[in-house]
Amino acid sequence: MTRTISAQTLLTRELLERRRPGYSLEAPFYLSDTVLQADMEHIFGKHWLFVAVEPQIPEPGDYVAIEFGSKSILIVRDDDMGVRAFHNVCRHRGSRLCESHQGQLGNIVCPYHQWTYDLTGKLIHAKHMGADFDPSEMGLKTVHVRTLSGLIFICLADDPPEDFEQMAAEMTPYLAPHRLQDCKVAAQVDIIEDCNWKLTMENNRECYHCVANHPELTISLYEFGFGYQPSAENAAEQQRFIDITNAACERWESMGLPSAEIERLDDRITGYRTQRLPIDRAGQSQTMNTEVASKKLLADFTDPALGGLSFWTQPNSWHHFMSDHIVSFSVLPISATKTLVRTTWCVHKDAVEGVDYTVENLTAVWNATNAQDRRLVEESQIGIATGAYQPGPYSPYTEGLVEKFCNWYVNRLNAHSR
């Protein structure tokens, strides 16, 4: 029997076979609707995606609706304080159940014909359906959901990658001391970038561009903290950073705060990386003066100078955990050339706005940085679309983590497109 190979599979295979290690991806990876279809099926359809933080749904009935591509997913806090995820689609005739990005529900009621579901997804009310209708067979379609120290991940696959459990075991000691579950959302900002989602992620995975483009961010972040490899050009500065980092990590480890780098970006299905790094100058937080943005510290911390714990996950997130606040980023494709970047800032649930913190100060660094990155990735998208673009070489000193992102992406597409 002859097997028909789709145009999507043929194009994807050709591009993957031509991929040159150490170089950026070919233009169709950033422009093609066909490649986006492969991304939605094999990357966003089969892997664990970061979508929200638990403080977004603190009480029973609280929900957030996550939209990406053609997908719409409800994340709901149930009456037992569990976190559940469902396709945001009524089982009757397919209406979207919740239009708003977030809100509060008693039950989940379809606006079309008022089919009603409880917070476990069970259908509890449907008028005029006849004696033979069995409501037990018409509950909402569930989505796999896991929480990791307050971070919410979903997976659309029937059989999600099992190595999430391994990541959770390794990361919980790093994340749990910050007690994200005991925080509240102080601010959330969505921006739409006119670029492919991979450009957004690649830009995040390097700081080659930081000094020239991010004056606000580099007040607090050392240039050498994110994947830099030793080079003769900056040997003395790099050694100084290594010495500062080693001394700080020794102190943090003695306080029960794991700090050593774990790098699993391209050798696991559920790829990730973490490391606690020192903050420059006052050394407290990612703010314009590097002092804490919130006087009410997280958890039971008493020392504000706990550095910044960075946590990156493939394919779509990065996070910074500090003594006083946590900032999380989720990247979700809208189309081949449009991407949603959602940034969420959390502070201690008892912190008082205007007393302990101001939203303006809390968000200043990353609002500025996000705007600058938006310009950079959109200019890259424009250049790639001109026809003059061809893949260029990554710097072996500053872009190794971009290469790891591309390796992970290419390996996962290869695994599913055969």
UniProtKB/TrEMBL annotation:
Pfam families: Rieske (PF00355), Ring_hydroxyl_A (PF00848). One of its GO terms (molecular function) is oxidoreductase activity. SUPFAM superfamilies: Bet v1-like, ISP domain. The keyword Lipid biosynthesis does not apply. Residues 48-154 form the Rieske domain. Coiled coil: none annotated. Keywords: 2Fe-2S, Iron, Iron-sulfur, Metal-binding, NAD, Oxidoreductase. The keyword Mitochondrion does not apply. Belongs to the bacterial ring-hydroxylating dioxygenase alpha subunit family. This is Rieske (2Fe-2S) domain-containing protein. It comes from Hydrogenophaga taeniospiralis CCUG 15921.
